[in-house]
């Protein structure tokens, strides 16, 4: 399974977006449609690279936007860049997220005492390769760090790209200490201080900043996958999150939706992409619930939802 990206707008601008396509050329959501597992039996996961190593632009999956493209975070109307934390330049790993996971803001973690941050779970890829923005890689989980970011649990899962020539030598967090001495200490210091140049206090951590091992990290990732399942099945309130792309998978359709199946039309040209999603919940009346046009290359999303009893 492979994915390609489609960039729209210019980097370092407010309208810059990175969309994803599958092998059939259809647009997919990196939040909902890319499978969590590359090899479930071996606990190998997919990861979406949001920020390549040594770069500063804080790109992230736009969880509230249709199709959930990558976009640059904005604070007070300005594009957000992470400051260099001496002696490092930008992010010190390939930074990204595991798809089909969600840190539930309504769930108070028993270990951290804080609720989730409402995002997919983050990864730090320690492999040798500097990945590209939007690259989907296969990773092995090694451990995790429990960052407490402004009162929210924000797990940072330490992983290694399976394409790394030394991947077979890394199987747990102690292997990182042994084979990459100083890397975990630098990771802790980076997350502790990266907001200080913006006038914020140092970040706090659960477990006194101790990195938890592979088994703990796997349990945490799988737990966030269960939270995500609850999100798309509407057992959990989605709030402002956009989960509309989930109607593409039959597993995500409720029994009510199955009686009125997905209708999907795709019209493509160099300047126009039209997506029409037809979703039935309780068959009653049709109404337009979403319309969006953005960027110089027009992208029109029309969501039709019917409520029939």
UniProtKB/TrEMBL annotation:
EC number in record: 3.6.1.1
GO annotation, cellular component aspect: cytoplasm
Keyword NAD recorded: no
GO BP annotation list: phosphate-containing compound metabolic process
Protein name, per record: inorganic diphosphatase
Enzyme class: hydrolase
Gene Ontology molecular functions: inorganic diphosphate phosphatase activity; magnesium ion binding
Keywords in alphabetical order: Acetylation, Hydrolase, Magnesium, Metal-binding
Family to which this protein belongs: Belongs to the PPase family.
Encoding gene per record: LOC118943919
Cofactor(s) needed for function: Mg(2+)
